Amino acid sequence: MISVNSRRYVVQRIGFGVLILAALLVVLPILFVVGAIVVEGIGAINWEFLTAIPRDGMKAGGIFPAIVGTLLLTVGTALAAIPFGVGGAIYLSEYARDTWLTRAIRLAIVNLAGIPSVVYGLFGLGLFVLFLQFGTSILAGSLTLAIMTLPIIISTSEEALRAVPTEFRTVSASLGGTRWQGIRNVVLPQALPGIITGVILGLLRAGGETAPILFTVAAFYLPRLPQSPFDQTMALPYHLYVISTQVPGMPIQVQYGTALVLLALVLSLNVVATVIRSYFRRKRQW
Amino acid sequence: MLTEIANPKIRIEHVSYAYDGEMVLRDVTLDVPANAVTAFFGPAGGGKTTLLRLINRLNDLVDGTQMTGRISLDGQDVYALGVNIPQLRRRVGMVFALPLPLPGTIRENVLYGPRLAGERDRSRLEEIVVRSLRQAALWDEVRDRLDGPASALSGGQQQRLCIARSLALEPEVLLLDEPTSGLDPISTGKVEESLLELKQHYTIIIVPHSVQQAARVADHAAFILMGDLIEYQPGKKIFTTPRDKRTEDYVTGRFG
């Protein structure tokens, strides 16, 4: 009796150990990656690096145009993706009935999420750069990133909307509200934290992508700020790719410094998303 | 069986209703008089709530349903083409079994309906808040915290807030779906008391949460069993001298 129990106990301990190891394996890489980048790159970070244009074939000076470019692309992506993404989610969650059409739309969204990002890049090149003649531009790049981001925004927003209990819609309707008034006044405010989180996660991915902007907007070396949506721009992910692989004799510190800035930008967006989510969760009343 | 009366507020004629191919109501015909409390009572799952929700067309929100028959309010078919549904729901208010305050303050809850109806005048809105909360017997308890969160109220207070929220629209009919099912006896007493007050001005239909409650508050009562209207009598006679064996069995507690 006792020996059986103690054997079970040992087996249980081993089981727990394996599970903990599995969990640790997830944490270790992120610690290594972030740690290595911070250690190697922190020395490159100074005021000039963040605010000056590149000099000496990008080996010296700063990465300001790339930072600005990435911010502009992220804003452009947000402007294009949020209205369509959230609008689409509202339609799917609140209005659409279960028909072959909505099933087709959902299938398309799932598949869209699975397409490799370089394919989006080629698609953007074909549609926006060449066919619509936007040229290699912030406009074309933003739209390409937006299309890539749409599935994330739509599916997280739809999930957030569906999480609001049906009864709220019924109550609003019973008080003489139209379907839209119920969505606008009762459902959307409660789904907002989930929607915002989804939007930020989507933009985060867009801001860090290289392949979609490769053919649509990114400039190899452009030591000035873009003047209009039809200009090219440098961008952090592509800049990192360029200085890591295309420029011989590039100081390693500049490469890590650039990676650090990109990482900091993306992670800070992530923190913002977390803060917003927890703030609204505390305010929620059901 | 009494089904037709002169000048009914609501007339339900041969209403059958199916959900996903399953019959929920079968050929129900009855008239609801104005300025009285009419109770639909019977075992759970018999279609009482569905019948209520058909009157203000809340079941429109549900897919996969089929309705035949006619429901009219003051002689007008509520399912006629071109009926303004939000307007209908302002005339026919509803209170649900579980109190569900909307996110926001007590005041915002009361004014949700009037604001959507386009009322902007501040003094009018203020008047509505006071009147509705008084009618729902909640005013004294919340007068000092109208701008506090509605979710901070107790269950009984929340349910009276939901009643006030419906009354804010000055409906002609008030549908109450087991409005006291989640409440303690004291809160239940308060809600029932306010019904006596309210029926002077409103036509009330209630799905009570027990036969006892039906007997306490109803001026007229209909017994609904598994989708069939079994018996409908004016006054409280249905509780003392039921005509149908099934009604008698239910009222005397032999099943249900």
Question: What this model shows, in words?
Answer:
The complex is a heterodimer of chains A (286) and B (256). In chain A, β1 and β2 (60-61) form a beta hairpin. The mean pLDDT of chain A is 90. Chain A starts with a helix and ends with a helix. Chain A is an all-alpha fold and 286 residues long. Chain A has a domain at 66-235: MetI-like fold. The longest helix of chain A is centred in the first third of the chain and has 40 residues, at 2-41. Chain A contains eleven helices and two strands. A two-stranded antiparallel ribbon of chain A has the order 1-2. Chain B is of the alpha/beta class and 256 residues long. Chain B has a domain at 10-102 and 176-251: 3-Layer(aba) Sandwich (Rossmann fold). Helices cover 35% and strands 25% of the residues of chain B. Chain B contains ten helices and ten strands. Chain B has helices spanning 48-55, 85-91, 106-116, 122-135, 139-142, 155-167, 185-198, 211-217, 237-240, 245-251; strands spanning 10-19, 22-32, 37-41, 65-73, 76-77, 92-95, 173-177, 203-207, 220-225, 228-234. Chain B has a six-stranded mixed sheet with strand order 6-7-8-3-9-10, sandwiched between helices. In chain B, strands 2-1-4-5 form a four-stranded antiparallel sheet, with helices on one face. The two termini of chain B are 22 Å apart. Chain A binds chain B through residues 97-98, 167-178, 181, 185-186, 189-190, 284-286, and chain B through 56, 58, 61, 63, 86-87, 89-90, 93-94, 96, 98, 100-103, 112-113, 116-117, 149, 151, 165-166, 169.
